[in-house]
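Help! Submission page says 'invalid entity' but I think these are all valid:
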Amino acid sequence: MLTDITLGQYFPGESPLHQMDARVKIVLLFFYIIAVFLFDNNINYALMTGFALSLIILSRLPMGMVLKSVKPLWWIILFSFLMHIFSTPGESLVKVWILDITGEGILKGFIISLRLVLLILISSLLMFTTSPLKLTDALESLMSPLKRVGFPAHELAMMMTIAMRFIPTLLEETDKIIKAQQSRGSDIGDGNFIQRTKGMLPVLVPLFISAFRRADELSIAMEARCYRGGEDRTRMKQQRVHDIDYVATGIFIGFICLLVGIQVIYT
Amino acid sequence: MSFIECKNLSHIYNQGQSNEHIAVENVNLKIEAGEFVAILGTNGSGKSTLAKHFNGLLLPSSGRCLVNGMDTTEEDKMWDIRRQIGMVFQNPDNQIIAAIVEDDVGFGPENIGMEPHEIRRNVTSALRMVDMEEYRNFSPHHLSGGQKQRVAIAGALAMNSKCLVLDEPTAMLDPRGRHEVIDTVNMLNKEKGITIIYITHFMEEAALADRILVMDRGHMIAAGTPREIFQDIGAMKKRGLAVPMAAELAYRLKQKGVKITESVINTKDLVKVLCPSN
Amino acid sequence: MSIELKNVSYTYMAKTPFEHLALNDISLTIPEGKITAIAGHTGSGKSTLIQHFNGLLKPDSGVVLVDGTDIGSKNNEAKMARRKVGIAFQYPEHQLFEETIAQDIAFGPKNMGCGPEETDSRVKYAMDFVNLDYNKYADRSPFHLSGGQKRRAAIAGILALKPKYLVLDEPTAGLDPKGRESLMGRILKLHKEEGTTIVLISHNMDDIAQYADNVIILSKGKVLIQASPEEAFSRVDAIHQAGLELPEIKEILNELAAKGLPIENNAYTMEKAVSEILSVLGRQGKC
């Protein structure tokens, strides 16, 4: 079922991760991702994996469910793993046709996959523990310096809010449309490429028409609720940096220093 | 001065084009503050078009619409008018903007620039009024239709709206959801003095109103108390509408020769007529 | 011959925080040639249930038999059995996609492998049944129809499959009283003239009272009542427990009986109510 996808969902909670300011979370996430790609030391990989797993535990979300967020992207991970296995020069272990599988390749493939998995896990964790509104407010606020050069930060944030609100609705609707057409004997997903593309039309046309109708009705509803762009808007939930954010940032800086230390010592 | 007043209001879609369509023609009406008014009419009778004039979502092609004395065509009054008149639409999914209930209720107040602490207070009291406080951290996606409509109502209340215009809010709901919505609306009118303009296809809901307006092909063809409107069953049927079940039953009994002289629009009336021992 | 469900269970989003048991050990029978109504409030499992009738969803446990054939099998017989069941879903917007109404209605027959002539004749037959004039509407866009007409066009798209069992999900929701009456009239005509078995999913209890031979009431994924309308509507507590209401006319009669009108009180339609009250008043010599 399409509606089984958990990507981009928020799970309300009271954990320290939930309480942190979204802006701080985004900035720290940003540096964590840089760290994942910068440090290439085995101990550091272990530490960074450990760090990610501790965060999941700290979030008090079911571990299995967070880990499952990797699922929609597993084929990208698999692809990059295979790419590295076959394309890294080194001592050949097994020869498949003209391709060599090397020990170095397996290691490199594993590390690249691990990087991707960490990246997805930690980004999902941000989505899971931050309400969509806080997330978009934080992005708007982080992007607001760009407003001066004409960057539509508010509009972008509003678009994201609406997109997040409607993703589950549209997924559910897609599911219903597929079922309605299947009930008329349509075989969605069968045949060659052209047939399959043609087979998608009975789903895509109603979906688009419905999405446009929703957009139309939504814009009327927003207008009725006095929406007139970002100017003079106030916020119910003001973004404030609390003690917990200072503590988290402190711990994070300490962690990065540790990574840097290990990196320097072992190279 | 009436709270809402329409004077010779007409609305023409695509004016001057080949697909020109007169949706509302020459409507005159007055709605007083604190009233509960139901609007009846078949699909395409122009009732939704009319309703969208009350807060300036549509502007009259000719004639005027005044809210609290302010003309909806005056641009600088627009936001004041929209703040005073909240709207609830038929499809609960297409009017909820935020992915969390309380964020959505706060959307209107944020737009009019209310202070954060005031927004929080209004959101809480609005959610309490529609009995949805325990759901404030829910995703709207996980609510029932009736709950979503109550969230939409709370969204208007949080802006301190004095009037709610509801455009077939129960059309897509099950009986439980319908009850939730109509009970909430009725309570807001009776206890909080909120003016209600309620468009519906359900005659039992319309029977709760102080006054019913009937639209037919763009014209307002009748106005009166439920008792007056539901009296004339033949006329209602001719317009493609119905009457409450009790009125219909009394009408059929009368046709079969039962002597019923009093007007009957609800079960209570029927009991009085048929069980005179009470 | 019938649609028969035996011990069917179905769970959504198993093993997530949103895990939800939608159908809990359901056994029921939809007899051929009758009008069966299925009622239940939102979340009672009724949409999940109907998706089992033609194999859109496969039960986690239990079997679905259509005319005795297990439709969960992979063989051709099961495929043919699934085709006997046509489902018209609630929102016509979810199925209309072609440029013209005729093309849209032809989608189903074409998928079934009907030739052009057979398809044409089925389109005409279906449009005639839902009272959409072929000459007037065949070449129009389905997107420019009114709400009631869209629903008819969508139902025609299912009728063109010539289903033996026609499942209608909330066919009258959102229509005005006139639209409701005329659509139900067409469905009744189909039932009488073609002998099509009708499964009516509705929470409009007055519609159910007026049209159904059998009533199935669902609550929390279980069958709460499976009975004749007369029996079903006598179980007031169970109906309220399911979040539903009695038909309005039944409520009125109950109130009259409670206030001392000596009626037998087993009527649940307008016609029967009128005759019952008349007979009482006749005995009392009031008319």
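Support: the input was valid. A stray whitespace character was the problem, and the output above is from the cleaned input. Chain B is about 35% helix and 20% strand.
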